[in-house]
């Protein structure tokens, strides 16, 4: 679930996690299609239109923003009659056909966004029905229908099922649920990448640790959507044990992410021909996963690194990048309007149609340790006391006037 989606990466690997361009990357080429009205961002939407729109709407919702009607209408207009979504339909008036490549990731992201916004039960119901129809016999999903299951796709679909009110353990194909599929990507507690998740096994069936897949799979194994909320630490965040249950596999994965982030508080990626460099999107995803798993300290440390270093990346990468940072802030109970010195919500809003309503205070800060109720109480008490004092003063003044000869 990242803004690391390039056309080449999607075409070659059809995955949800290609590498994010470096900050020094050249500007994006002129879009090959006209940017539709209502769509967030100005980059070519061919490979990520529905994904970035869904993340933008989901992030706005967590921040208390009511998006423009035409932004929501653009997303709903992308749905095919069978319930599926493609990455982008340039002509929504034209029926979907066999040539249109619908995918599980765009569909699952749209379900999560539309469910959060509310009022789209019929559309999300059709989308969930389609997702169930393309579930693999191992219980998971690949990026494209019929493709081999992978950790990222299975996780984002699991989040969509949960958001839509489904119970993933009861969504079964071939006797296997999404949780069963996720366990097949979990590495043991020994050897390289102990406790992590792999994206997919290689041709020999070997699992290789993948931080992006781990962040996604931790959320999926916990039954959490992309807009996961923080979990209070409960003493179960340390130690690695055989990943025989989704909960244990999620704990192992969170522990792996914590270990990887311990030194520099960010993940790295290596682009072809380039040295290792910070991976801002994966780091944001890891923050959400860690917060959802109760690793509060590690999540907060990584978030602080993002506050200091990620705004420039988001400015270059567009709305989905801002959305990822908003979701990371939400997951840690941080105000996305005070993300270091950056107002992420304002910048996200500016990438699309003006919202119908923008909250003056984020839901994250409203749900912090002090939820504001005590402040409101004292303000109310103060106002009452002031009124009483003023009334008493007026009463005494009138009494003195009556007593004067």
Structure write-up:
The protein contains 16 helices and four strands. It is mostly helical and 405 residues long. The strands form two sheets. A two-stranded antiparallel ribbon has the order 1-2. Strand 3 and strand 4 form a beta hairpin. It starts with 6 loop residues before the first helix and ends with a helix.
Strand content: under 5%
Gross morphology: globular
Order of helices and strands: HHHEEHHHHHHEEHHHHHHH
Helix percentage range = 40-55%
Overall structural class, as computed from helix and strand content, comes to: mainly alpha
Radius of gyration in whole Å, from Cα? 24 Å
> How many β strands by DSSP?
4
Biggest beta sheet attributes = 2 strands, antiparallel
Widest sheet: strand order?
Answer: 1-2
Which consecutive residue ranges, at least 5 long each, have pLDDT under 50? 4-27, 361-390, 394-405
Mean pLDDT over the residues = 86
Number of helices: 16
Distance N to C terminus = 83 Å
Brief rundown of the structure:
The chain is an all-alpha fold.
Give the SSE map:
Blueprint: H1 7-13, H2 49-62, H3 69-76, E1 85-86, E2 102-103, H4 104-117, H5 121-133, H6 151-163, H7 178-183, H8 211-221, H9 246-261, E3 267-269, E4 277-279, H10 280-292, H11 296-309, H12 311-317, H13 319-331, H14 344-349, H15 363-366, H16 373-403
Antiparallel strand pairs: 1-2, 3-4
